[in-house]
Amino acid sequence: MTSPLLVERRDGVCVLTLNRPETRNPISDADMIAALEDAVAGVNQDRSVRALILTGTGSAFSSGGNVKHMQDREGMFGGTPAQLRDGYRNGIQRIPRALYHCEVPTIAAVNGPAIGAGCDLALMCDMRIASTNARFAESFVKVGIIPGDGGAWLLPRAIGLSRACEMAFTGDAIDAATALAWGMVSQVVEADALMDSALALARRITVNPPDVLRMTKKLLREGQHSSLESLLELSAAMQALAHHTRDHHEAVDAMLARRAPAFTGQ
Q: Which tens digits make up the pLDDT trace of 174-212?
């Protein structure tokens, strides 16, 4: 069997590609969950990586849960209620935890339909670019279940509570243009320009000092749930570290000399 996830490095950018096109890239299978978790852990440990792009092979970004396995009650969808609870906690819920704690900026390049947990997978990334072929659906109600992978936390933060309720209560899909108007994605491009656009955004990020990028992302994450006073205290501590990096001195020197900086991650 081919690898469920393709991993490629491109000049400081790690590109992860869901690789189950024959089943529209579901993410509920154990091998896909483990592959995504391992890949993000590898990015966190590799200081040369400054951004991550997540996309899918074939016509779909991700179909979310494997509906055939739901029907057959296989894998994480089988067992008693207690076993099912543990199946979610020890299965698909590992993906939002991994991506939430990914230390570098993440970009979802949504090449096609992102359905159910596939929609939530896109929302787990910091930024989203959609092709004109993309559709988004928080469609759990259509198969008689609830968002079990954190969608109820992710979706309102991306598009606001009222629109999140509309998507979650109806299960209806929205197209890429609507996703752009609602703030779910920041760009919509033609399908053949999707990866170039995602890489261009990644390169705008990766020209910056890598340690500062990681600290900035950490602050943005903490700012979602901490008080202003707590965030200011953490910011002061991280700023003290930033001021003592070689990259800070290089940035200032390059700005004053009107030349391009050369950052080393030190």
A: 999 999 999 999 999 999 999 999 999 999 999 999 999
Burial bucket for residue 227 (CB in 10 Å: 0-12, 13-18, 19+): exposed
Whole-number Å distance between alpha carbons of 31 and 253: 47
Half-sphere exposure of 224 (CA within 13 A, CB side): 12
φ/ψ of 99, rounded to 5, equals -70, -35
For the CA atoms of 2, 112, 52, 104, the dihedral, rounded to the nearest 10 degrees, stands at -130
pTM: 0.94
The neighbour count for residue 167, using CB atoms within 10 Å, is: 23
Dihedral Cα 238, 240, 241, 243, nearest 10 deg: 120
> What residues contact residue 108 under an 8 Å CB cut-off, 6+ apart?
53, 54, 55, 61, 121, 122, 124, 125, 127, 128, 129
CA distance 39 to 46: 11
Angle between helices 151-159 and 161-170 (to 10 degrees): 130
Coil/strand/helix, residue 113: coil
